[in-house]
Amino acid sequence: MSLSHGTETLGTGRTMRCYIGLGSNIGDSRAIIAEALKRLDELPGVAVGAVAPLYRTAPVGYVEQDYFINTVAEVSTTLTPRQLLDGLQQIENELGRVRVIRWGPRTVDLDILLYGEQTIDEPDLQVPHPRMGQRAFVMVPLADLNPELVVGGEKAHILARRLAEEQEIHIDK
């Protein structure tokens, strides 16, 4: 799946390649993720490029909930990391995200996984995403998009293969 919308000069003035994790386990998760991708592509200063296949994954953390549908999108943006986060949270809110239980059920979850090669460590914004290298639902679709990407000192496809053997993840059909 690929969407296109021109990036405008906002924020940094430079176009950055980022990876966004998307997940949902409340409602019609496939439709919600499709709508989130559409809205992401419509954000000024953001263009959605390649999108990995959808995966059905077991919940992590709080496990007494339905399975998730997850994917990863590659985006180009001229937004700053903070502006991008604000845009993602706006989309989450518009699509009915309510934060009640950490790692609990949600209509949609949008996370900045990588923002170029930048490292950001703020209370509400950590990039690279601090747990991405531990989660098959992030690494498998990320490896679909960029298998040679290095995450935590390991190539994405190697890390994804190992995590897929340890955690439940299936291509969504």
TrEMBL record:
PANTHER family found in the cross-reference section: 2-AMINO-4-HYDROXY-6-HYDROXYMETHYLDIHYDROPTERIDINE PYROPHOSPHOKINASE
Domain 7,8-dihydro-6-hydroxymethylpterin-pyrophosphokinase residue range list: 102-113
Catalytic function, reaction form: 6-hydroxymethyl-7,8-dihydropterin + ATP = (7,8-dihydropterin-6-yl)methyl diphosphate + AMP + H(+)
Keywords tagged on the record: ATP-binding, Folate biosynthesis, Kinase, Nucleotide-binding, Transferase
Pathway membership, UniProt: Cofactor biosynthesis; tetrahydrofolate biosynthesis; 2-amino-4-hydroxy-6-hydroxymethyl-7,8-dihydropteridine diphosphate from 7,8-dihydroneopterin triphosphate: step 4/4
Its EC number(s): 2.7.6.3
Protein name: 2-amino-4-hydroxy-6-hydroxymethyldihydropteridine diphosphokinase
Gene3D superfamilies named among the record's database cross-references: 7,8-Dihydro-6-hydroxymethylpterin-pyrophosphokinase HPPK
Biological processes per GO annotation: folic acid biosynthetic process; tetrahydrofolate biosynthetic process
Source species: Desulfoscipio gibsoniae DSM 7213
SUPFAM superfamilies xref list: 6-hydroxymethyl-7,8-dihydropterin pyrophosphokinase, HPPK
Xref: PROSITE patterns: HPPK
Leader sequence segment: none
Residue ranges of coiled coil: none
GO molecular function: 2-amino-4-hydroxy-6-hydroxymethyldihydropteridine diphosphokinase activity; ATP binding; kinase activity
Any one Pfam family match given in the protein's UniProt record, by short name: HPPK
